[in-house]
Amino acid sequence: MNARRASILLLAGTFGCSVNVASLQVVAPHALSAGVAHTAVYRGWGDGESCRFWILAEFGLPQVDEATDNALRPLHGAFMRDAAVYSVHPVYGFFGWHCYRVVGEVFG
Fold first, then answer.
1. pLDDT tens column, 31-69
2. Whether pLDDT at 9 is above 50
């Protein structure tokens, strides 16, 4: 492999990637009461992340429930509908971040 091709592969790897892990009809970080599910109103589009730093090894795993809480909190929501969960790696190399990102419609 020539030096130019190796440089391009190395540079491409440092930018990271994002992969869709799951599509969920309804997601809530905590159990919902029946009343909340029936009386909830649309609050907007939520987006939250849970991230962990790593250097050659990860310092804990990001949490989907933490990412969901982070998406719901600003909108005072109780649950999300039509949510997508992504595994995001913004930086690759000897160090970087591993994140779970949750986006969807917030109701509360």
1. 888 888 889 999 999 999 999 988 877 678 899 999 999
2. no
Give burial (CB, 10 Å; 0-12/13-18/19+) of 107. Answer: buried
CA 99 to chain centre: 6
How far apart are the C-alpha atoms of 104 and 26, rounded to whole Å?
A: 9
**Closest of 87, 47, 84 to residue 69, by C-alpha:** 47
- Return the structure tokens found at 59: 């310092």
* Model confidence pTM above 0.85: no
> How far from the centroid of its chain's Cα atoms is residue 58's Cα?
17
